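Troubleshooting: if your tokenizer reports a length mismatch, compare your output against this known-good record of 228 residues.
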Amino acid sequence: MSSSSATTRVSEGTTRRCATAIAVTTVATALTRVSRAATIEAPRGYDAPSFASNGGANRFEASPASGSTSPRAYAIDWPRGWCALTDLQSARAVNVDASFKDPLDEASTLAVFVTRDVRERSVDERFGTLRDDARRRAESAARQRTIGARAGETRSASGRALRAHVIETEVGGGTAGRFGSAVELVKVFVDAETCTEYLVRATASKAAWPKVRNELRAAVESFEFVRE
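Known-good structure output:
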């Protein structure tokens, strides 16, 4: 037997073992994901936890054709393992166009609010300067303070840059309820073409915020208008 034949058989055997191992790992991961979703109880009014097949964030798309109150179709990423609100029709009657919640930490939420027929043509015209807006949100209840504020941007459906306010506020126990202190992150902007205000809001308990802030910031920033 030549050394080259032996090497070839060893190489083929190694390849088959690697392929088998990869297949087993893939199946095990899928089963673990399903098992995990089955054992986690969804909050009342929410669907079961969702895990995107690519292992990344889930993707939510909304359009007037699907019942959204937004005059423009949009999409937003939401964290894997979270639950989506079941009854969007009722929620949309009070401007909540999409809502998601972490079943393991109900203080962690993500939502999109859509307000139609606003008269102001920009976020600054509607809420004042970024500093004014941040101060107003912090002063809306006791034991709150601004921990971050910056100017942001969102592209309109026609490609125009829409100025946004991105504000992080630490809210006290009185506002956060049974969750104690929490952090609220909002990105708000006005689409003058459709006279619509969009507010994307994420929340988490103060204790959880250091661990989830990057993920929630990315989710808020993922909001974008899409072609229908």
